[in-house]
Amino acid sequence: MPSIFRGLPTLKALSPQHNVKTFSTTATVHAHSSQITPRQLRSRFWIPQATIKQQNEGVPYGRQLLVRAGYFRQAYSGIFHMLPLGLRVQSKVEALVDKHMQSLGASKVSLSSISSQKLWDRTGRLNKGSEFFKFKDRRHADWLLAPTHEEEITALVQDLIHAPGHLPIRLYQVSRKYRDERRPRGGLLRGREFIMKDLYTFDSTEADAHATYADVRKAYSNLFDELKLPYIEARADSGNMGGDLSHEFHFPSNLGEDDIITCTNCDYAKNEEFVPSFKTVQQAVEADAQVTGDTTSHGPSNLVSQSFLSKDRKCFIKAYASTEAASSNTASINPFAVKECFDDQVEVDTGVEDPIALFNARIESGENQAQLKVYYVFDQLINNDVVQRQIHEDKKWLHENKLRAFAVKIADSSASQSILLKKRDGDPCPQCEIQKGGGKLKVTKAIEVGHTFHLGDRYSSKLDLLVPTAGQKNVDKKGAYVSMGCHGIGVSRLIAAVASALSDDRGLIWPRVVAPFEVLVVVNTKQKDMAETVEVGNQIYDDLAGHPGNPADVLIDDRGDVDYGWKLKDADLIGYPVVVVVGKRWMKRKFVEIQCRHLNVKENEVSLADAPGRVRQLLDRI
Ligand code: ATP
Ligand code: MG
């Protein structure tokens, strides 16, 4: 007998009742330890039944498959219940996160989900966001469900550090976040309640904080490498987080809401949202000024224009870009570049569908008419005559409505293409252009799964978190502000993103590290000599689960009342990385079958002695 069988239960351990519904003994003595661990049995693990009977509407993708296979259910729009399978995946993601956060020397905390609106008022974020779930308590105090925890953790640390030696600090948590998203979508991809890992770092100096930032990026790369899936790390915009340095980790996917621009030749990788800052010149213009000079060059055929509205609805923005140097005739304007033309006074809303209709309605309402403004934004390639001409076209409208008009011209760019245009496949890479490398850009739709931000003193300055000097307390307000970073990973989003990255028309496919179970042993229980197949299944289970250096997380499909073909379909839908079948081939020729859809492997004749080793080889590759 091969050594893998030493110390394992014998056939005698089976009792007759196992032939009825389920078959196996539930406990195994691991060959290499004296610990008795119950075997994980499909019959004892609740997965909602009959889900595979539902037929596809359209092409299945991760979300539908996750629901159909029984991982989660939607309770309300953007709000979900995790079922046992989904929770196992979530726990695996959390374990992966824990491993890499520990490699950074970060300690785990769990902050309250309830946060005071007063605190958020101090950082100025309360009025900026529209995604808060706000509520009052019985004393009419104002609270919110935390969408993120910069405010709370800064206040906590402010309260607890009293000496210079207390820094650096690295704290993280894996917790529920609440955002009343305008458009919840894609199931777990964009929820209103979701699980996030958030890490916060606190350093004494800016230089230390930058070193920490580099460590976090490295830890993120190590974490995402373990999923063995393609991902892109791109320079990102820091949005309303403040700070000046930020990167995002993305999975390429058509379901993604981000456009990531990479180069075929160099390491250029940027989110379309990230637009390096540039200078603009702003000038008030008279609506009825006379048009002078040549108005024929850069005529409308060389221009694209798009309108926007500010978030406060007081400013209408018309942006013009020259398409002369564009490689595509379907060029369009990048709203994030238009955003970059303004400071905090004008916040461009990139999500308005019909800005002119909304603005005209605002004019007609007569409300605060004197505050309404119109901005004409022109890229660096458009000459002044054209600027005048475009504004002149609106003369009557501006005049009649007493609108104040401003021309905003991009001043300093060495780029040969319009700075306002969206990048397209095949455009020259700006980084290569400088280095004469000649690379071309590629635009990829992608799902953002992680984000790193260097915050600097964005929060510490507002909440008085200072590096304590010896003998002084923070309240003395002396010394430098603590330099912070915050770093998120969307745990629930990651589950949905992995599911859609790897699934096929038969079901889900999980990388080993986040699979609900790594191996399923399917035993044919509908044959007369089933006691033997059951025993072989148990032996394979015990060898895999009890391996000292490379233990696997195994489940046995022990259901006696379920058809064998059904079990295999069920296995495909749920997406166990490796499936071992002890069935007809075992009875005829003493071989087991091993399947791994991820690697396109289907081996029909594997001996019992070879099977566990072969399974481990496959697991190590996925
Ligand atoms: P997005 O641009 O997609 O709204 P964000 O920039 O608002 O993301 P962060 O505040 O940086 O996101 O949050 C950290 C991580 O949390 C994100 O990288 C993402 O993976 C995840 N995340 C953010 N919002 C949601 C959501 N509504 N549902 C699920 N995951 C989310
Ligand atoms: Mg968001």
UniProtKB/TrEMBL annotation:
GO biological process, one term: prolyl-tRNA aminoacylation
Keyword Protein biosynthesis: yes
Protein's UniProt keywords contain Nucleotide-binding: yes
Key words, A-Z: Aminoacyl-tRNA synthetase, ATP-binding, Ligase, Nucleotide-binding, Protein biosynthesis
Ranges for domain Aminoacyl-transfer RNA synthetases class-II family profile: 86-511
One Pfam family per UniProt: HGTP_anticodon
One MF term in the entry's GO annotations: ATP binding
InterPro entries assigned: aa-tRNA-synt_IIb, aa-tRNA-synth_II, aa-tRNA-synth_II/BPL/LPL, Anticodon-bd, Anticodon-bd_dom_sf, Pro-tRNA-ligase_IIa, Pro-tRNA-synth_IIa_bac-type, Pro-tRNA_synthetase
EC numbers on record: 6.1.1.15
Known catalytic reactions: tRNA(Pro) + L-proline + ATP = L-prolyl-tRNA(Pro) + AMP + diphosphate
GO cellular component: mitochondrion
Family of the protein in this entry: Belongs to the class-II aminoacyl-tRNA synthetase family.
Protein name per the record: proline--tRNA ligase
